[in-house]
Design goal:
The chain has about 900 residues and is mainly beta. It folds into five domains: about 375 residues, Peptidoglycan recognition protein-like (Lysozyme-like); about 100 residues, Sandwich (Immunoglobulin-like); about 140 residues, Jelly Rolls (Sandwich), CATH 2.60.120; about 120 residues, Sandwich (Jelly Rolls), CATH 2.60.120; about 120 residues, Sandwich (Jelly Rolls), CATH 2.60.120. β6 and β7 form a beta hairpin. The longest helix is centred in the first third of the chain and has 18 residues. It is elongated.
Length: about 900
């Protein structure tokens, strides 16, 4: 009911309202839950009957009218026709609809109770329609009149002009069962949700509000008043900028909450079934005693787009007073409830009810302004301000000034209209400003955090007097300089200086974009025939704490010498590279700084996964190793577990076939968070007691939650991860681990998991092999040659010839990547074709994920390695980083 008709009481007489509050207070008695509410009434019933308008006196044609059709062919005055009496027993509301929403139809109605007919009353044309561009506007919609409450009438008649009425006119009748009309003007209501923030899954994400400044008022929920489910998914705006006040233009004579609920149920069914809308058009309704009713679904916590002011539905909240306020002033309780609704919903979006807003209309048949017109509107306005209507009635409209002042008083101290210079993304190093007004004297602070880690990036403070405007700026920097790419959250907070009470904070999500690539350092020759010195794993780089996340096509050069005990003359390092918080599917590459970037990757990941990879890589110019990210934004952590020297270290001894050192699935128990298992290595598979370090493959099996396994020298507290859990799945990583007393520890952090440890080789005294790093070379790629490996299939790859590995090499350091797997889970094993396949794996993968692991494989006498795939089919890529000889 959106257009004022004459004040009408159509139907039987109803008792006068009882006990309406007279004070300017919200209705009392709201419980904190719906448990005490009465049982929800049954849904409204709905019937539609076609109406055919015929010239007066066309009795013969009337007789030919199809059964079930109402004919309007009886003369009514000089130029109108009316229908015969239409029985409406059991129905409390009616409306008339037609096919074209853009057409206006002149309809009048009268009702009969017993033998007495009311006067004819015009049915106002409810010209409001869904806003253009919304999903609701694409539905099959019909034009129509307002829904009118007819109470206990037993028959109605309709009147139309004798000519010019469009085809496909229908009479809609809505009933809601017996209604108590004489008792109950309040009762059990539910406390409204006090979170006024837009929902992240449906809003456009440009800004989010933490909570409403004003607690939600008590209200009757949709369940309590008997709402039908929404008929379709409607749109949600990113914010609210204004409140539109309406009245339903129906009778003020309802005598109970039950009768008010019945009117709302009937209006909803009419809007859904007759007009084609998703739900009742209003976001909230208020009865004449000040009771509040939740209207359109989810309006209490989202900026749901209603159908209440065509062209102005988007980003506004529609509040309708139940009744006709053309000649009756809304009671103090009604006004207070409307003011509290306005304060509650608008405070969540930092609007000043007493100010104005700029609005660009979306048009609509009944709009005062054509689509695309930008106008200044009061933040609290009446429907008549934007449409050709008298709504919310003259005396209802006269209350708007008081509503604005009262809503502002309820809100108290607040930010007003915070406006950022960017809404979603900003280039690296570009400042972000938030301009806002102040209600009250405020001391404010702007905090910036990395949205992925929660680490504080920046904090700026200031103060502003009441009525003043201020600008809070983030310069795009953290303590160490310009921050890296990725998602950041700006939080503007303040405290009212007079009361010490915090105001509603404002939050803005910003994606910092761009690429970062430092100047290329001068290359240095790579060493050869190097020996190894193990160290306890130490973290040497972490973009989470340095606030330098890598963007797309971005590189960072990590100093690896002169840190963590690695000497300046180290020629290669054993690293563990961990990718965290990827925003897209991507891969990392690592190579000696200053060399040309290789095509090979060391790690593949995607959003939601934390992935680690062992890398043995030569030291480049300035003692650095380059790490490159391909797409999206990502955090990277780098840990070092040893280094290679021209002399003074230990040689490598590779096993002909890997030896299993631990499998908690067999030896138990499963590792719990914080649990440690010591693994004896010396004395197994020929490892001597004075071995300094081992190369092992660590597998996390069936993890119960996120976390990781860390392999460290026995008795050492881990400071870095070795392999990160994949909940309910398996994950693998190679590690070079120093020994203490001939043993190492495996510790679980986070979710519980089984652990499998396979020995690949060891470092120690004796005639061991020396390591020679090379610029990474792609040795094979089944996507371009050979095709995928099938289930149970093996294939030999000539890595020696492809990567220049000499014939005397006893081990090849190769990164094996699996991609396009068809099995949910499979494993890959790489070994020398000169011996039988070992009962161990080098890579656990599946599900189409891109995953990799480094392997140290003894080549066959012909310079090849043999690779096996267990289940499904998979493509494999091999990149060689060096060799032992």
């Amino acid at each position: 009911m959106f257009v004022v008709a004459a004040a009408m009481v159509l139907g039987g007489a109803t008792p006068a309202a009882a006990g309406a509050p007279a004070q300017s207070v919200a209705p009392a008695g709201a419980p904190t839950s719906a448990a005490s509410a009465t049982t929800a009434p049954p849904p409204a019933s709905f019937d539609e009957t076609p109406v055919v308008v015929l010239p007066a006196g066309a009795a013969g044609r009337r007789a030919a009218t199809a059964a079930g059709t109402i004919a309007a062919d009886q003369p009514e005055g000089a130029d109108r026709v009316r229908t015969a009496a239409v029985p409406v027993a059991g129905r409390q509301s009616l409306g008339v609809t037609w096919a074209d929403p853009a057409v206006a139809v002149d309809v009048e109605v009268r009702t009969r109770t017993g033998t007495t007919w009311t006067d004819w009353v015009e049915l106002g044309d409810e010209a409001t329609t869904p806003d253009a561009g919304t999903a609701e506007s694409a539905r099959t919609l019909r034009g129509g009149t307002s829904s009118v409450w007819i109470g206990g009438a037993d028959a109605v008649q309709l009147s139309f002009p004798a000519s010019g009425t469009p085809d496909d006119v229908r009479l809609a009748l809505v009933g809601t069962g017996p209604v108590e009309t004489t008792a109950g003007t309040g009762g059990a209501r539910t406390a409204a949700a006090d979170d006024g923030s837009p929902d992240a899954s449906t809003s456009d994400g440009t800004s989010a509000v933490i909570a409403a400044a004003v607690a939600g008022p008590p209200l009757y929920t949709r369940d309590q008043w008997g709402a039908a489910p929404q008929a379709c998914a409607f749109d949600v705006a990113s914010t609210l900028v204004a409140a539109v006040v309406h009245h339903t233009a129906g009778p003020n004579s309802y005598g109970s909450v039950a009768e008010a609920m019945a009117q709302i149920r009937n209006d909803q069914r009419y809007h859904q079934q007759a007009r084609g809308w998703c739900d009742i058009g209003y976001n909230f309704l208020v009865d004449k005693w000040g009771n509040i009713y939740e209207g359109r679904a989810e309006s209490s916590f989202k900026a749901v787009i209603g159908v209440h002011a065509g062209g102005f539905n988007t980003r506004t909240v529609g509040i309708s007073m139940l009744g006709d306020y053309s000649s009756i002033t809304p009671s103090a309780s009604v006004q207070e409830s409307v003011a509290r609704l306005i304060a509650w919903r608008l405070s969540a979006y930092h609007r000043d009810p007493a100010s104005t807003t700029s609005y660009t209309t979306l048009g609509g048949e009944n709009s005062r302004y054509p689509a695309g017109t930008t106008i200044a509107l009061p933040v609290v306005l009446g429907h008549r301000d934007v449409a050709f209507t008298a709504c919310p009635g003259q005396l209802g409209y006269n209350t708007l000034g008081w509503l604005r002042a009262r809503a502002r008083q309820i809100i108290g101290a607040s930010f007003v209209n915070p406006t950022p210079t960017v809404t979603s993304s900003v280039a690296r190093g570009v400042p972000v400003d938030v301009q806002a007004g102040a209600l009250g004297d405020l001391d404010w602070a702007l905090s910036v955090t990395d949205a992925r880690t929660g680490i504080l990036v920046s904090r700026t403070t200031g103060s502003v007097p009441s009525g003043g405007i201020f600008v809070a700026r983030w310069d795009g920097r953290g303590p160490g300089g310009v921050v890296g790419t990725g998602p950041y959250r700006l939080l503007l907070e303040a405290t009212d200086r007079a009361s010490g009470v915090p105001v509603v904070p404002y939050s803005l999500a910003v994606e910092v974009t761009g690429s970062q690539n430092p100047p290329t350092v001068a290359p240095v020759p790579l060493g050869s025939d190097l020996t190894f010195v193990p160290i306890t794993p130490q973290r040497i780089a972490d973009t989470r704490t340095s606030l330098t996340s890598l963007g797309p096509a971005s590189r960072m050069d990590v100093p690896v010498t002169g840190v963590a005990g690695v000497p300046a003359d180290a020629k290669a390092v054993a690293l563990n590279v961990t990718a965290v918080h990827a925003t897209s599917r991507t891969h990392l590459r690592a190579w000696p700084a200053g060399q040309a970037m290789p095509p090979s990757s060391v790690l593949n990941t995607d959003p939601g996964r934390t992935v680690a990879a062992h890398v043995v890589v030569g030291v480049g110019g300035e003692g650095k190793v380059s790490v490159y990210n391909d797409t999206g934004s990502i955090h990277v952590a780098v840990d070092v577990s040893g280094y290679y020297m021209a002399s003074g270290g230990a040689g490598f001894h590779t096993l002909a076939t890997p030896a299993r050192l631990l499998d908690t699935r067999l030896s138990g128990p499963r590792l719990q968070s914080g649990g440690t298992r010591s693994v004896q290595v010396a004395g197994i598979a020929g490892v001597p007691s004075d071995a300094s370090a081992v190369v092992v493959n660590i597998t996390s099996v069936g993890a119960g939650a996120a976390g990781y396994l860390a392999a460290v020298p026995k008795g050492t507290t881990p400071t870095a991860s070795t392999v990160n859990h994949r909940p309910a799945g398996d994950a693998t990583n190679r590690a070079t681990v120093a020994l203490a007393g001939g043993a190492l520890d495996v510790r679980d952090v986070g979710g519980s998991a089984d652990a499998v440890v396979d020995l690949v080789g060891w470092y120690g005294p004796g005639p061991g092999a020396a390591f020679t790093p090379i610029e990474p070379v792609r040795a094979f790629d089944t996507r371009t040659a050979g095709g995928a490996l099938g289930a149970g299939q093996t294939r030999d790859f000539a890595v020696g010839a492809a990567a220049g590995v000499p014939s005397g090499a006893v081990g090849v350091v190769i990164n094996v990547t699996a991609t396009q797997q068809t099995a949910w889970a499979t494993y890959i094993t790489a070994w020398s074709g000169d011996v039988a396949r070992p009962a161990t794996s080098d890579l656990n993968t599946g599900g189409g994920r891109d995953e990799s692991n480094v392997a140290v494989v003894r080549p066959s006498s012909g310079g090849a390695i043999r690779v096996y795939n267990n289940l499904g089919s998979t493509h494999l890529v091999g990149d060689v980083f060096g060799y032992f000889r």
